[in-house]
Amino acid sequence: MVTNELAAGSAASPLQLARARGRLGGRLILLGPAFVAAVAYVDPGNFATNSTAGARYGYLLVWVVVVANLMAMLVQTLTAKLGLATGRSLPELCREHLPRPVNRVMWVQAELVAMATDLAEVIGGAVALYLLFGIPLLPGGVIIGVASFAILALRARGFRAFEIVIACLLGVIVVAFAANLLAAGSDVGSAAAGLVPRLQGTDSVLLAAGILGATVMPHVIYVHSALTRDRIPPTCDAERRTLFRGQRTDVLLALAAAGTVNLAMLLIAAASFHRSDVPGTDTLDGVHAGLAQSVGTAAALGFAIALLVSGLASTSVGTYAGEVIMQGFLRRRIPLLLRRLITLIPALAILAFGLDPTTALVLSQVVLSFGIPFALIPVVVFTRRRDLMGNLVNHPATTAAACAIAALVIALNGFLLWQVITG
User: Fold this and answer.
1) Is the dihedral of CA 82, 86, 89, 94 positive or negative?
2) Which of 220, 275, 299, 303 could form an SS bridge with 40, CB 3.0 to 4.6 Å?
3) What is the 3-class SS of 134-199, one letter each residue?
4) Distance in angstroms (rounded) separating the CA atoms of residues 306 and 201
5) HSE on the CB side for 150, CA within 13 Å?
6) What gap in Å lies between CA 323 and CA 117, rounded to an integer?
7) What is the pLDDT of residues 187-217, one digit of tens each?
8) Is the pLDDT of residue 264 over 60?
9) How far does Cα 239 stand from its chain's mean position?
10) pLDDT in tens, 13-28
């Protein structure tokens, strides 16, 4: 029908033009933003956390990874819906609806979040280059920064080029961990038993809180809302609903891939390291060495490649988040190269001073934890407002679930922050 209308010369909306690509092409064009966001859920910090969970407690915390992924799906769905319904990103909405002093505070903390994100990703990528090629950490960090800049430059060719490259990088991570899981094996019965919620002692509570509390990454909330805003503008309520259905599918597929990777990380560590004498499995290089010892060099190689790809993809997304943040909160832009340098300097400084990479990753997660309420609460508040969302306003049950998730994530991150401060 759409094709006939176009052939007849009638004016076509952007969505109609997209659907004119055919049944498959019309659906694929709706996918992409969530795959960019999903990269944040398989960043180097997740590598360490999930591997530690499996090494220390075996399959005990499988349920935590599953619950965390379900929470992420709802949060990213709301974020995608916000950009689609309002035609504005979350920072833009904050600038429009919050008092000026509050907006400035929001901007400062969001910039710190973007820098903390880049810190973790660059360090993780540098560690991967060291594991793969023996490149020292500081030159490795520079290489990661330059390579991620090349990925970011793809945005000049339009949103699809950037989304496709990020989705391909995510695919490499999925394949690497799928291969490692097959090589390491897994106790299916024990993994299924791990779906039953239970904990063992204070340390397992702390680790579970770390997995759940690190689920919502504030910078991808800003990015996801901007990506759905910029893609296919709807011309009526019916098109808005059609686009939202596409975004829900996008989130389901992308976050399912990220959740599969996180689960594979835990299962591999549980099968390879739990109740073994492999040392140092609470660090990235320790996990790499442990895989080489217990599974084989191919598994260690797959882990290092996945870590490298994760660092490249996630630092590109983190730098783009900084651009979205400044443009939204302040209506200001700075050159991409300058933005890349600003976010890269803290990571390179840490590597230059020889600080422990794992410690730096932990500290970056503390900063991210601090930024979660500033991103998550406005999303819940805005998506429940009919004057902003129109026919995509939250159902009361959706708002209730989102409020529960926000309260849980904020409480867990507050608990983790207190644990870090008190030692």
Assistant:
1) negative
2) 220
3) CCCHHHHHHHHHHHHHHHHHHHHHCHHHHHHHHHHHHHHHHHHHHHHHHHHCCCHHHHHHCCCCCC
4) 32
5) 7
6) 13
7) 899 999 999 999 887 778 878 877 876 667 8
8) yes
9) 28
10) 877 777 777 677 777 7
Tell me, what DSSP letter sits at residue 12? -
Q: How far apart are CA 266 and CA 270, in angstroms?
A: 6
What distance in Å separates the CA atoms of residue 123 and residue 213, rounded to the nearest whole number? 21
C-alpha distances in Å from residue 83, one per residue of 43, 69, 238:
24, 21, 16
DSSP states of 262-330 as a string?
A: HHHHHHHHHHHHTTS----TTSHHHHHHHHHHHT-HHHHHHHHHHHHHHHHHHHHHHHHHHHHHHHHHH
343 against 349, higher pLDDT: 349
What does the domain layout of the chain look like in residue ranges?
Answer: 33-269+280-422
Ramachandran category for residue 116: left, alpha or beta (phi over 0 → left; psi -120 to 50 → alpha): alpha
Look-up: residue for tokens 């594991």?
A: 131
Two tokens at 307? 């870590």
CATH class of 33-269+280-422: mainly alpha
Q: What are phi and psi of 199, to 5 degrees?
A: -140, 165
Residues 6+ apart with CB under 8 A from 14: 232, 233, 235
Identity of the amino acid at 56:
R
pLDDT score of 3 more than 60:
no
- Average pLDDT value over all residues in the chain: 86
What residue type is 180 in one-letter code? N
Confidence of residue 76 (pLDDT cuts 50, 70, 90): very high
C-alpha dist (Å) from residue 414 to 209, 352, 417: 10, 31, 5
List of residues 6+ apart from 10 with CB closer than 8 A:
none
Does pLDDT of 1 surpass 50?
A: no
- For 243, half-sphere exposure in the C-beta direction (CA atoms, 13 angstrom radius) is 31
The residues, ordered by sequence, that sit 6+ positions from 335 with a Cβ below 8 Å of its Cβ are none
Which runs of consecutive H residues, i.e. helices, occur in 20-89?
Answer: 23-28, 33-38, 44-57, 62-86
pLDDT at 9 over 60: no
Give φ, ψ of 273 to 5 degrees: -120, -25
Cβ partners under 8 Å of residue 182, min gap 6: none
SS3 call for 234: coil
- Which residue is it, tokens 């530690």? 52
* Model confidence pLDDT, tens digit, residues 354-375: 877 767 776 676 677 778 888 9
